Amino acid sequence: MKRLVITAASLAVFAAGVAAAQADDLTIGEIHPITGAASFYGLVMTQTLKMRAAEANAAGGLDVGGTKYTIKVDSGDSQAQATKGVAALRKLMADNVHFIIGPLSSAVAPAIKPIIDSHSDILQIIDGSIADGVVNGRNSFRVQASADTYNNAVIKYLTEKKYKSVAIMTDRSHQGFRMSEPRMVAALKKAGIDVVGEEYFQIGDTDFSAQLTKLAAAKAAVLVVRGYPGEGALITKQGQALGMSGQIVWEMGAPPSTVRKNIPAAQMNGVINCIPRMMADYVRLKVPNAVKLQDTFEKRYKQEPGENAAFTNDAFWILTTAMQKAGSTKPEAVAKEMTQLKVSDVPHLVTQYLPYEGGLLFKDGQANPPSSCQVWQGESWQNLPGDKVKITTTN
Amino acid sequence: MIELLPQQLINGVALGSSYALIALGLTLVFGVLQIPNFPHGELYMLGASFTYILVASGMNFWLAVPLASLGVVVVGILLDQVGYRRIDKGGNLSLMIAALAMSTVLQQVATILWGAEPHTTPSPLPGVLRTPFFSIGYYQILIFFATLACWLFVWLVLHRSRLGLAIRAMAQNRTAALLMGIDLIWIRIATFAIGSLIGGVAGSLLGASFPIYPTMGLNPVLKAFVILVIGGVGNLWGAIVGGFLLGILEILVAGYISSQLQDIGTFAILVLVLIVRPNGLFGRAEVLR
Q1: Which helix (H) or strand (E) holds B164?
Q2: How far, in Å, are A34, A80, A230, A299 from residue B108 at the CA level?
Q3: Strands A123-126, A67-77: pairing kind
Q4: Do A207 and B118 touch (CB under 8 A)?
Q5: Within a domain: residue B276?
Q6: Alpha-carbon gap: A111 to the closest alpha carbon of chain B (Å)
Q7: Which of A37, A274, A381, B51 could form a disulfide bond with A374, CB atoms 3.0-4.6 angstroms apart?
Q8: What CATH number does the domain containing B170 carry?
């Protein structure tokens, strides 16, 4: 009997210890394409998140309301596909995860939106997708730009350069670009720029000659290409071969290493890319937080952090700062705190978000990253003359 | 818009060349061995990847093409011996499932080995031929003639050699061919070797035009199956004509109707051919006795 009591007591103490240890764990879920065609974007985001979590744990854990939490990262692989993304979210929910960073893909974000909307105990920060209408400002927020921010960067460039006509080629499988196209065309026309042609392709296409032949005949001053760099490179090459002489303007996240793998660097000379500022841009402009992230990432993974590391880094710091300010890990309390979070509240942000009224970071769930245009010279993108970044965050 | 027709037709011929080149190897294997060889798309991918690796390591492109294609031949033969041969009597469904499985396996292995990020072999023949009516890249002209050369090579093997005679006999009537003493195993190996060689050459050459990544063969192999149906399964000339027809049609749909309907044009012609000539433009009706 005595042995039974001792065993029971030991088990109870052990169970209590396990429960206590579990209570101090904080799991952040992520939905990114870790495998598949878009994995070269998503893997970097996963690595950034895991690196930040490991750093916080090495520093003794995340202090929320006097309790130290060990951060765990639970990964969901979307493969940039809607069905896989939904499955990844369901898996995270089954794992009892309440905080989710992602997705990257504009195919996945709209697919998981209804589930996120109907679960107030889940808090999502989108760090990649630019699709329309995927944030609600209650329990879903976005640190990546909206499609309109991408479009506005192009419109601003064309207006400043006083171009009179433009032809547009859009990846029709890209939800963000496709859905925002009518607004972009209307804004261009309002700015006095004639849209002489709109053509479409989809990711994975390799021949664009029919569309480019039509657009070349229209003799537009500018060809705007909206999609991904693989197709962007082919369109640029094939457009040049078909005798297109206008300015080529890309509207896409295009890491130089990816661009160079798809087109000889010399053929890219003079191509403009207008997008929200990304990791490499901030590093070139020597923003301290960006340089620090790049150094840490390179030390840890022996590779460059890539374009999207900045947004994942920012999502991590925004989430953990909101938790600390809320003094709680309850999703509802953290979400409420995020609506009141100011740009200056969050440390280590790489993206120099433009504050909304009152210095707020989010408006209706959407953060406001600045955009700019770069020009390809030599082996990579370079800032246009006179380009400066306004430092808005704590560095 | 009609003034663009010569350029659009040239665009169609250039696109059709790439389709025909990929379809040629597939139609041979399907026609002779009745195997829906979905991994033909992955053999195409391997041809492109091997060439990329060889060129990146400093080898001359024109030397890399035959070496990479021979590497693909080895993979193709292994594919048949490991994946298909042992389940040959299992029926069409088993072969189809095996084909899909091997396609996935090859994609995954390629992803593990080389990653998913696209890359391109630098074009060995840059430059564009410009005329008053159209422009075409010198390399596209080379692809066109390479397609015709591959067709001629396969035709000569099939129609001017004892091996070709045996392959054709096997394609026409397997039981009768076996009764005549034709060795099925060697015919399989030869057929897969030729089919893989053409797939490898297609990948090697087209990898200097298109991005190379593990799933790059998916779309082309689907188009190649459409070409098989259009041209007639197992018919080499059908693969060539079907490829050019599909290429030109896709370009005309995108150029004159809408670039959003490009794929619909592909499947519209497929349905049309199936209704009008169910055995394809060059296929012969089979008579069961």
Answers
A1: helix B162-172
A2: 13, 16, 20, 29
A3: unpaired
A4: no
A5: yes
A6: 22
A7: A381
A8: 1.10.3470
pTM exceeds cut of 0.90: no
- Helix or strand (DSSP H, E) at B19: helix B5-33
User: pLDDT tens across B201-240, in order?
Assistant: 999 999 999 889 999 999 999 999 999 999 998 889 999 9
Q: Provide the residue range defining the domain that includes B271.
A: 2-117+136-288
- Nearest-angstrom CA–CA distance, B113 and B118: 13
For residues A125 and A312, is the Cβ–Cβ distance under 8 A? no
**Residue B53 maps to a domain:** yes
Own/partner contacts of A283-287, CB < 8 Å, gap of 24 or more, are A284/A382, A284/A383, A285/A383, A285/A387, A285/A388, A285/A389, A287/A350, A287/A352, A287/A389, A287/A391, A287/A395
- Cβ pair B117:A36 closer than 8 A: no
Helix residue ranges, H only, B79-116: 92-114
Structural domain total, chain B = 1
A46 vs A75: CA distance, rounded Å: 8
Q: What one-letter code names the amino acid at A27?
A: T
A35 CB neighbours in chain B (<8 A) are 111, 116
Interatomic CA distance for residues A233 and A262, integer angstroms: 6
Express each pLDDT in A377-386 by its tens digit. Answer: 999 999 999 8
The verdict on residue B123 lying in a domain is: no
Tens of pLDDT, residue by residue over A190-224, are 999 999 999 999 888 899 999 999 999 999 999 99
